[in-house]
Amino acid sequence: MKKILALVTATVLTFGMLTGCGSSSGSGSSDKKITLAVWGSSPAEITALEKTISEFTDKTGITVEKEVIQDKYMDVMKARFAANNAPDVFYVDSFELPALAESGVLLDQTDSLVDKDDFYEPLLNAFKGSDDKIYGVPKDYSTLAVYANTNLLEQAGVKTSDIPTDMNEFFKFVDDLKSKLPEGVAPMLVEKDLARHLDELDTLGANVIKEDGTADFASNPKVEEYMQNYIDGKKNGSIVFAKEDLGSDSAISAFGSEKVALMIEGNWSLGAFAQDYPSLKFETVALPKIEGKNHTMSFTAGYSISKNTKNKEGAQEFVNYMTKDGQETWCSGAGVLPSRKSVAEKMDVVNDSLKKAHVEGADYATVWSRGTTLPIINTAFGNQFLGAMNGQIDLKSALEAIDKESNDEIKRQQ
After folding, report:
1. How does DSSP classify residue 306?
2. What's the distance, Cα to Cα, between the start and end of the chain in Å?
3. Distance of alpha carbon 200 from the chain centroid
4. What is the pTM for the complete model shown?
5. 31 or 141: whose pLDDT is higher?
6. For a 10 Å CB count at each end of the chain, is N or C smaller?
7. CA atoms in the 13 A half-sphere facing the CB of 323
8. Predicted confidence (pLDDT) per residue in 149-196, tens digit
9. Residue 366 and residue 370: Cα distance in Å, rounded?
10. pLDDT at 382 exceeding the cut of 60
11. What is the DSSP letter of 355?
12. Other beta carbons within 10 Å of 300
């Protein structure tokens, strides 16, 4: 899609004066320094990243100039590519990878990546371009699970084992929980993004993103019937948002400060809870089934290298280290799961009671990656579903608006 790719590759003169962590220069010391851009994350993740980078520098002598981009990460990155000022190495989300790969700004890492067969295949595939070459290396992965505050559930007279294993029954359980919890505590927290719901819609058999990349949320009645559960829960107060309803900066802080009894969240929460809420008592269980089928989302981010890096060897050495020898340090501190099978075995993650539901979910998860138009559709979904959740528009109209907003923008960018 020419205009979509042009967002990444076009020369934008207004960004020509951008400063920041551009690719290493061709000076004599460039082989001993690389630049790295990452998005803002939890203190636990930042601490784990800095520790892993320090170990890399101690082993190789290569220093890493790190920049944390706190807001509008991809907008900033696209601007820097346009200004030929991209960092050597940078985080890339799997759902952003297809457009970046097609644009030609990423270095092909197929031949430089070590022990490719050690990666979980679906994770590595998420970073392949349409030419089947590898343009990013998965640094970890996460899946969704139900997080249950055992202290709050006990006060409500229920246990984690009472959580239904069927999604329809789960919604009823959450509704019933509202009157049993201490005053001021909400039953369940959810997020509005499509990234938290695509697995549900896939499990229902709703082909909401068609093969041609266009959106189709309105044509299947199952979509409206199922998503109405969230609308009804938000209306009666059994389902809440972290910021809008609880005044918390994030789902993690809302759950950690015991403002909500249940949340559907990723295992990236574990590192934050260990660091910021060490006394929090909670358990994790798999998402309740839909029509008897298991489901969850799988998220993976990776390291990509700018095609124009002046320190190709140093960048490749860094990526290989961070996704192999340094992966245990990173994953242990950040609370994420290793993308390599050998590291997962070494860490024995499947026998960790808090990670078990997340690890087992990897076998059936929907990977958050669906072609070059997914970012457009995700934005439209977030805009319209939020309106429906807040009662500003009925759900049927919201689903129709998602299709129109998405497909109009896709057409405009063709």
Report:
1. B
2. 5
3. 16
4. 0.82
5. 141
6. C
7. 33
8. 999 999 999 999 999 999 999 999 999 999 999 999 999 999 989 999
9. 10
10. yes
11. T
12. 28
Contacts of 6 (CB under 8 A, 6+ apart): none
Strand-pair partners of 154: none
Tens digit of each residue's pLDDT (9 = 90 or more) over 254-303: 999 999 999 999 999 998 899 899 999 999 999 999 999 999 999 999 99
Around Cβ 31, how many Cβ atoms within 10 Å?
16
Strand partners, 340: 119
Rounded Cα distance, 397 and 410, in Å:
20
Contacts 24+ apart (CB under 8 A), 201-207: 201/226, 202/295, 202/366, 203/290, 203/291, 203/293, 203/295, 204/290, 204/291
Q: Judging by DSSP bridges, how do beta strands 282-285 and 239-240 pair with one another?
A: unpaired
Q: Decide: helix, strand or coil at residue 116.
A: helix
CB neighbour list of residue 248: distance below 8 Å, 6 or more residues apart: 242, 254, 257, 259
The first and second tokens of residue 345, run together, are 């075995």
Secondary structure letter of residue 89 according to DSSP: E
Residues 153-187 as b/e (b if ≥16 CB within 10 A, e otherwise) read beebebebeebeeebeebbebbbebbeebeeebbb
Give the tens place of pLDDT for each residue, 325-374.
999 999 999 889 999 999 999 999 989 999 999 999 988 999 999 889 99
Q: Report d(CA 232, CA 265) in Å as an integer.
A: 20
Phi, psi of 337 (to 5 degrees): -105, 145
How far apart CA 411 and CA 70 sit, in angstroms, is 31
| β-pair partners for 320 | none
Q: Taking residues 75-92, what's their average pLDDT?
A: 95
Report which secondary-structure segment, H or E, holds 103. helix 97-103
Q: Which residues of 246-282 are buried (b: 16+ CB within 10 A; e: fewer)?
A: bebebbbbbbbebbbbbbbbbbbbbbbbebebeebeb
202-228 exposure pattern, b = at least 16 Cβ within 10 A, e = fewer: bbbebebbeeebbbbbbebeebbebbe
**Is residue 83 within 8 Å of 16, Cβ to Cβ?**
yes
Rounded Cα gap, residues 57 and 74, in angstroms = 27
Centre a 10 Å sphere on the Cβ of residue 304 and count the other Cβ atoms it contains. 28
Q: How far lies 188's CA from each of 146, 179, 281, 282, in Å?
A: 10, 13, 16, 14
Q: Contact at 8 Å (CB) between 231 and 397?
A: no
